[in-house]
């Protein structure tokens, strides 16, 4: 759930933040090569100036609630309030103790790094997506996960990712998940971490 904070108060909005960016059109043959050069530059790996980690990259929200500000300081206005522990977020920028993030729908801004975790999670992008026993479409279906459910990401292999939804572990196709691009996920997490995820439809 995301809360929007216009002016002096916070209120809930069921809308997606649309990020507006200005563009400068420059005429003339001397600029003809710019689009290709820009594409090549964007394709090059980038690292954050603070952490030296890849940008963009995925993290998850450690806190149950986190303010998302217009700029990287406490003096900047709160534009959003993210209210879902473990939700995956994409980091696109760094400044001091602040990280510029966005969620699956594009809503975002600057969050303090203490609200974030390196533990990897994903959001299920397909309703009743099968959680399989092996990375194979013909494998046994252990469970079906509903659209929008958050799962722990344990690792990826080719186009398949091993996930944990509640107490169920299994494999899902990468195309069914949001939060698995850019950087390789970590190795399997230790047993015993109790996460409470809803929306799991068990198969019999």
TrEMBL record:
Keywords: Signal. Pfam families: SH3_4. Residues 1-32 form the signal peptide. This is Aspartyl-trna synthetase. It comes from Dinoroseobacter shibae (strain DSM 16493 / NCIMB 14021 / DFL 12).
